[in-house]
Amino acid sequence: VEAATDDEEPTFHNVYARVLVPRCSGATCHGSGPIANLDFTSEQRAYETVSTRTVPGNPAASQLYVRIDPALCIAPGCVTMPLGRSPLPDDKLALVRAWIEMGAQR
């Protein structure tokens, strides 16, 4: 078994750099200021807003994770993110899931 590289570790820095910035912070999304009370204009602001949508240790109870996992976003009115784009690839979902499972720490 190979050790995970630093950019694969389930840290918030990696969630921000590998998932939120490239997939969720475009000009019409959460990168241009708060939209739906999520603001990804900086890593600090992103953590502050994302942490209100996570249940440490429980991805399935975390609004953040439910909204990015098409298999969980099935309730009426649930809209899978990123809006208007293809779903996140499995490795990105796994990174976010692992970060939440490990306590969703900064």
Q: How are the SSEs ordered, and which strands pair?
A:
Layout: H1 12-24, H2 43-50, H3 63-68, H4 90-101
Brief summary of the model shown:
By secondary structure, the protein is an all-alpha fold. It has helices at 12-24, 43-50, 63-68, 90-101.
Major β-sheet annotation: none
Class derived from helix and strand content = mainly alpha
- Globally, the shape reads globular
| N-to-C order of helices and strands | HHHH
- How many DSSP-defined strands? 0
Structure overview:
The chain is mainly alpha-helical and 106 residues long. The chain is built from four helices and no strands. Helix 1 runs antiparallel to helix 4 (90-101). The longest helix is centred in the first third of the chain and has 13 residues, at 12-24. The chain is globular. The relative contact order is 0.18.
Provide keyphrases for this structure:
106 residues; mainly alpha; 4 helices
